[in-house]
Amino acid sequence: MAIVGRAGTGHIEMKLLLSITVVIMCCGSSLAQENLVPNPSFEENTSCPFSAGGLWRAEPWRSIYGSVDYYHECGINGFGIPISVGGGGHALTGQAYIGLALRSMSEVIVEGKEYAGVPLLFPLIAETKYRVAFHVSFGDSSWYAGKNIGAYLSIGELPDDITSLLSFDPHIRYEGEQFLTDKEGWTLIEGTYVAQGGENFLTIGNFDADSETETVFVEGGGVLKPNAPDYWKGVYYFIDDVSVVEDRDVGIGKVEELHFGLWPIPAMESITIETEYRPNLEVALYDMAGREVFSSSLQSSAQTINIGHLPAGMYVAVLSQKDVAMARRKLVVE
Q1: Cα 16-19-24 angle, rounded to 5 deg
Q2: What gap in Å lies between CA 122 and CA 291, rounded to an integer?
Q3: What is the DSSP letter of 281?
Q4: Most exposed among 73, 103, 239, 284, judged by the fewest C-beta atoms under 10 Å?
Q5: Is the pLDDT of residue 14 over 80?
Q6: Strand intervals (E) in 42-109
Q7: Nearest to 73 by CA among 101, 56, 102, 93
Q8: Which residues contact 99 (CB under 8 A, 6 or more apart)?
Q9: How many Å apart are CA 314 and CA 180, to the nearest integer?
Q10: Tens digits of per-residue pLDDT, 136-151?
């Protein structure tokens, strides 16, 4: 378990100064190597889980389809860590993870798939390569193991009906030959994706029909077979440490660099944006939860924008042309 120290009040000003300094240093770059997934290991929550389907507690994550479970060390009624209705096990990072079903083998539960989704901190840049990764651990209350799991990057949230979800081909999927049967450790699933531009939502689940979903019976588990509810007659995995990170060093399709100057940092009432003027060029500001809080078209190569209405905090400014993200910078508002 990671140990997080708390800064005393005497260190707050120094901590803020260091944070601003880091932001200033990074603002001249494209923010490579920063994880675009908010709450990537599900540590932040609005309350402790005590029942099934509690993913909504780990904002801004949500269940796209089905009822994805949320587990935390503070959880009760079988949704704690390391012992739970799913069979238990320690988190890869921190004190939390989620659990989702990939297929039902029960005659009672006809459709047993579940999908977890999250809005990214800001849209992907066109023609830029990203490394997408997450870790899985087999829920040992489940009777069956599988290997059909992947991740899909989209513009906006995917539809919440199973027929539509199965029409998408995941951009990242587990390609191994072996079934994912490890109950004690965590298996890394990763791959690279070249963005079309504007993708701002990540969904994890099984995008294959039941007829294409491979399974294997696994003896044992946290729930005894004669007493297991129909829910566990299926394929179920814990998920932790999700990431989408820009990877420009391996580069097929490097994005054309668009000059993007932004000052002052930190800002208070207004910012000035300097860039190569192009028709249909727009700037949007996103907060750290990935919500768009401001947008405006750019009419010149140096344009001043009023931001006095924004609360103090950290933001990301994204330049786009015809809904294709071209460049981005961090912004601190005091």
Answers
A1: 125
A2: 8
A3: E
A4: 73
A5: no
A6: 62-65, 69-72, 96-104
A7: 93
A8: 68, 69, 70, 71, 86, 139, 236, 237, 238, 239
A9: 39
A10: 999 989 999 999 999 9
